[in-house]
Amino acid sequence: MNAVLPFLPRADEGEGFHAPTLGEFFPEVFLFEGTPFEINRIIMVRLIAAAALILLFWIGTSRMKIVPGRFQSVIELGIGFVRKNIGEDLLGRRDGERFLPVLTTIFFMVFALNVTGVIPFLNIAGSSLIGVPLVLAAVAYITFIYAGIKARGGKFFKDALFPPGVPKPLYILLTPIEFLSTFVLRPVSLTLRLLMNMVVGHLLLVLCFAATNFFFTSGAIDGVARLIGGGTLAFGFFFTLFELLVAVLQAYIFTLLTAVYIQLAVSEEH
Predict the structure, then answer these.
(1) Residues 6 or more apart from 4 whose CB is under 8 A from it?
(2) C-alpha–C-alpha distance, residues 233 and 213, integer Å
C-alpha cells in the first residue's frame, strides 16, 4: 500500500491510527530550500502537470493532418468540446472563437491540476493550495472585465453598478450589492469552489487508504480488522473514481462560469 501511496504512515511508525491533517498540503521542501524557487511535492506535481499538457499539445499539433492521428484526435476532441459546449453555446460563434484560447487554457489547466490527485505516486491535486485557484480566478476576472470594457466602454461599469430601470433611491441598497456580487464574490467563489473540492477530496482519499493501511499492517490482524480494512479499501477506490469525475466537473464548471461572466459583461442588458 505504501508503495502506491507514499504519504501514508505505517502502523508501526506510531501507536494508533493517524488521521489526515491539513499538514498534507504543506509538504517538506526537497529542492532549492531557502530560495524563491523552493520545490515541494505540490510544486513538483504542478510542474509535471504543466509539462504533460505542453507535451500533449505539442505532439498533437506539431504535425496536423487531415486524417488526425491519436494525439491530434485527443486535442481536437478536447478543444471541440470547449468550443461547442461552452464557448459557442454561451457566447455565440464570434465571441466563442475570440475567447476560445482563454477558455481552453482554463479548462485543461484545471483538469490537469485536479486529476493529479488520483494519479499513483503523485496523489495530490496541484490545485489543492490556494495559489493556483486564485491565479485562474484572476485570469477569469480580468478576462470578463476586459470583455465588458472592450464591448461597452465605461458603460460596462455604469450598468453593472447602476442597473437601468431601477428607481434611483434603491441604488443606495442595490449598488453595494451589485459591486460585491460582480467584482468581489465572483473571483472569490471561483477560487473557493475549486480549492475546497480538491482539499476535501484529498482528505477523503487519505482517510480511506490510511485506514486500510492501518488495519492491514497493525500488529494484531484478525478477521474483523481485515474485513474493515477491505471496506475502507473499497471506499477508497470508489472515492478515487468519484474524484476523477469531480476533476472533470470542476474543470467544466470553472470554465462554464468564466464564459457566463464574459457573456454577462458583453451583453447590453443584465
Answers:
(1) 120, 121
(2) 9
Beta bridge partners of 39: 31
The helix/strand/coil state of 7 is: coil
Give the distance, in angstroms, between the CA of residue 140 and the centroid of all CA atoms in the same chain: 13
Q: Worst-scoring range by mean pLDDT, 72-81, 100-109, 211-220, 226-235?
A: 211-220
On whether the CB atoms of residues 107 and 251 are closer than 8 A, the answer is yes
User: Nearest 5 degrees, angle CA 94-CA 82-CA 76?
Assistant: 100
| Per-residue pLDDT, 1 | 45
Q: What is the pLDDT of residues 7-49, one digit of tens each?
A: 444 444 445 667 788 888 888 999 988 888 899 999 999 999 9
Q: In the chain, where are the structural domains located? A: 11-266
Say if pTM beats, i.e. exceeds, 0.85: yes
Grid coordinates belonging to 131: 495559489
